[in-house]
Amino acid sequence: MSRKKVNQQLLTDLALRRIDSRALSIYRARHQQHRDVVGRRSVRVRDFATVNDRDNLAQAISIRLLTQKGELAGLGHPEFGSRLPELIGEKRTDTTRNLAKLYVIESLKQERRIEKIVEVSVSDQPGHPSQINLMVRVKPVNDSEVLDLGPFTLAL
Predict the structure, then answer these.
(1) What strands, in cross-sheet order, belong to the sheet with 114-124?
(2) What does the pLDDT read at residue 1?
(3) 34 with 41: CB under 8 angstroms?
(4) 0.85 surpassed by pTM
(5) What is the Cα–Cα distance from 96 to 131, expressed in whole angstroms?
(6) What is the pLDDT of residues 36-56, one digit of tens each?
(7) Under a CB-based contact definition with an 8 Å cutoff, are residues 60 and 138 in contact?
(8) Number of domains in the chain
């Protein structure tokens, strides 16, 4: 079995699972279990799950887009996040869709693991007049394949 070479520049992090996004995004670390032999006994070990390479970049982009810019200023990261939450309460218009696209691009340009933003598209969510869908395509650093993300649904 051949294994694809891991892109170390895309890093490894804790694997997170979003559990609530109504007011602000709340995450919980995912866990993994495995069996380990201690002496002559087999024990179940529970540990934090990790995510690496392209999956880590996809998780990081999702968290970046769902975090309001400035929310992490107190932790020393005032530029982290996006301005997408500023659109909540706006009507779904061409201007709103264009601002959403601009805010996504602005946020993605802060991510050092992205070599190129290939495409950001914004479309209406059918049947939901106050929602839009965002699709993102990026080329990670030192990677020949494009990473597709989305759709992310934004409720206005």
Answers:
(1) 114-124, 131-140, 147-155
(2) 43
(3) no
(4) no
(5) 11
(6) 888 888 888 777 888 888 988
(7) no
(8) 1
